[in-house]
Fold:
Amino acid sequence: MTLQNVQSFAAGTWISAAESARPIFNAVTGAKMAVAGCNTLPVQDMLDYAKDKGGTFLRAMTFHQRAKMLKAVALYLNERKQQLYDISFATGATLSDHMIDVDGGIGTMFVYASKGRREMPDSNIYLDGELEQLGRTGTFLGQHICTPLHGVGVHINAFNFPVWGMLEKLAPTLLAGVPAIVKPASSTAYVTELAVKIMLESGLLPEGALQLISGGVGDLFDGLGPQDVVSFTGSAATALKLRSHPSIAENSTRFIAEQDSLNASVLGPDAAEGTEEFDLFIKEVIREMTAKAGQKCTAIRRIMVPETQVSAVTEALAAKLESLTIGDPRDEATRMGALVSAGQKRDVLAMVDKLASESQIIWRDEARVPAKGAFVSPVLLHCEAPDSAVEVHATEAFGPVSTVMGYRDMAHAAALVAKGQGSLVTSLITADPGVASAFVAEAAPWNGRIYINNRHSMQESTGHGSPLPHMVHGGPGRAGGGEEMGGIRGVMHYMQRTAIQGSPDMLTSIGNKWVPGADQITGPAHPFTRRFSELVLGETLHTASRTITLEDIEHFAHFTGDTFYAHMDEAAAARNPFFPGRVAHGYLLLSFAAGLFVEPNEGPVLANTGLDNLRFMKPVVAGDAIKVALTVKRKTTRNEDYGEVRWHVALTNQDDALCATYELLTMNAL
Structure:
């Protein structure tokens, strides 16, 4: 049988594994199937290639261009995912496991592509937060911005998710404008290699944007500097070793760790046997014990239930495990495949022995486990004394192993969760909002994510063990202290936040967003007659004025039904410390403002899509004359036909006092 040679992609060249490369074994048959790793890697060439080629090209792109690139790559992968399914069976994973890995990774890319278009500007500078007025008159302002680091993202990934583990790091890195060097775990590197080959063959990624190390990283870390980022997933011991590298410490190189942790699931005191919540709890625990054969960093390791429910829970879990089919993952009847390797199997069994030193094994059936490959039986334990136990809160068997323990009340449950010293996720199954509130207040400091589910959310919930790209994936303490994904938060790991201080004109130029106080430009025609591409930042329409009458106020009140006393009762309004007497409705002012600046004829303005940040500063009374300044604040292309224009609207009175401001959003033809 010919061994597969798992290659590295370095500085634009595919490099084959050396004769002395690391062996890779089929998890199902135990046979040697591949080798990975080369004797030497051109690491400095790789770093230069990433920064000079990939980084330069990516930084020249806008966030929207990078987002479109991510979407195109995700579509390309999605059309070829069957290839990834087929090769992944050798890892011991079932088809449903592949879907978690492959589809989950591709889905993450789609989410970042969407968020990049919707939540980030069509620019290469991201404005972080609102303006800060640093002087009394507004001529000296501050704005935080984020720009791409001029380095490389080094991604060290675990064996359990060779596709998702790569793509959940790669998507925010590329969206930020930073190239990546990916290093998968050797035991499943052949799956990652195929995914990388598919992406590179697509021609959709800039040269230097993605490189692959199959095997050891050599002296790569020696060349890392202050503009680089290391993102790691794996064990705490390996994270500590990498984090302690002299180059990381000396250069303050960013290091993000997502470590294996002792995650918990808590059955609420209201979720007694016979309730929908009890059945949901059993289903969640079984799924998390057996999906990927328990080889998930988010898997449930500690099962916490009311002391009165221990017997019911253990019996229900044991019954489900009795019906579990373990075997060849290619068999459609199989519900749990193998661990990834014989070495992983030895580690899991050794951890089970440690757990059994202070817990009782409730269910285990080695007789149903295939003799070949890295198969193990699920193991369910019961710890009678979780307060004094040590191993159950410190030892993780990275396989289908979990321990049941009883708690007295929710405070006790939260205290047991905390004994894990930091988790990626804890789930709580309850229909009682009071239980959830009390638990979250105590347990949140020890968790990166708390997943709450019940009969009302179960149809849409994604499961205890499913980190979503919208939310942060990480956790404190034992879980590594880092965060991955989290929507745009994940992109920020690969960008530098910088405080910019200056005049409104300077901040307008830097941020590509008009700042109040900056120069206003008079356009050649009414701005609503000008196409998206013709409008320029700062272009402003100053309208004529309109006098507000008492008849206007009363007509608006009766026409809309808004007869609030401040608009209709002079004496009552005068007693209100905010008003001098009867005042005009705020929405009357908005309507009149629109009447002042609108251009009624058909033109490039296609739709009014919203109004943001409305503030009323000064009341308007009968006899006041209002006028409007309508300014182009920001432009964002949405597709090939139209773009979004964000207008700054300032409504002032006859004394030029500011009465109201807001932002108007329109879609304009390109």
